[in-house]
Amino acid sequence: MKNRKNLSAADKELMDCALSALKNAYAPYSHFAVGAAVRTATNRIYLGANLENASYGLGICAEVAAICAANTAGDFNIIEIAVIGQSLSPENLNMDSIVMPCGRCRQIILEAGQVSGGGVKVIASNASLTMISKTDIEKLLPYGFGPRNLMRLDK
Ligand SMILES: [Zn+2]
């Protein structure tokens, strides 16, 4: 377990970007804001925030938004993603736990990692950046089904 002080400068930057994105979350229903930032092999960073909808099932996770931003820019070689979540609900403001990507996001991150060929590092944190976990998508989704299974990659 790390905190912000013992992260590399690159990881601090990515976490700060995710925290910045979190501030733009549109979460009027869950009152749970999530920010994400992805770094690509070109060393560019793309941001995403969760976007909820009155039709609840249509909500978009921050991780998906960030990955879509990278792909839309033609920069899909994602090597790392940072995720931060924070409750905005008054009764839960003291909740400060690490927020990991949901199952759907893990699948989408796995796809990006298999396409890049190098996997994706996942840094997840609580909102105060005092508890930070850094791992690999292959550990968060072991034996995951991906493009390799469809033999659509040379890597
Ligand atoms: Zn998700």
Structural class given helices, strands, pairing?
alpha+beta
Principal-axis shape equals: globular
Q: What order do the SSEs take from the amino end to the carboxyl end, as H and E?
A: HEEHEHEEH
Strand line-up across the major sheet: 2-1-3-4-5
The portion of residues forming beta strands comes to: 15-25%
Overall description:
The chain is α+β, with helices and mostly antiparallel strands and 155 residues long. The protein has a single domain (4-150), classed as Cytidine Deaminase, domain 2, CATH 3.40.140. The chain is 28% helix and 22% strand. The chain has 4 helices and 5 strands. Strands 2-1-3-4-5 form a 5-stranded mixed β-sheet. The protein is globular. The relative contact order is 0.18. The model has no long low-confidence stretch (mean pLDDT 94). The structure holds zinc ion.
Identify the notable features of this structure and list them briefly:
4 helices, binds zinc ion, 22% strand, 155 residues, five-stranded mixed β-sheet, alpha+beta, Cytidine Deaminase, domain 2, 28% helix, globular
In short:
The protein has 155 residues and is of the alpha+beta class. It contains four helices and five strands; from the N terminus they run αββαβαββα. It has a single domain, classed as Cytidine Deaminase, domain 2 (3-Layer(aba) Sandwich), CATH 3.40.140.10.
Present the secondary structure layout.
Layout: H1 9-22, E1 32-40, E2 45-49, H2 62-72, E3 78-87, H3 103-116, E4 121-125, E5 132-136, H4 137-140
Parallel strand pairs: 3-4
Antiparallel strand pairs: 1-2, 1-3, 4-5
Bound molecules: zinc ion.
Residues 61, 63, 101-102, 104-105 line the site of zinc ion.
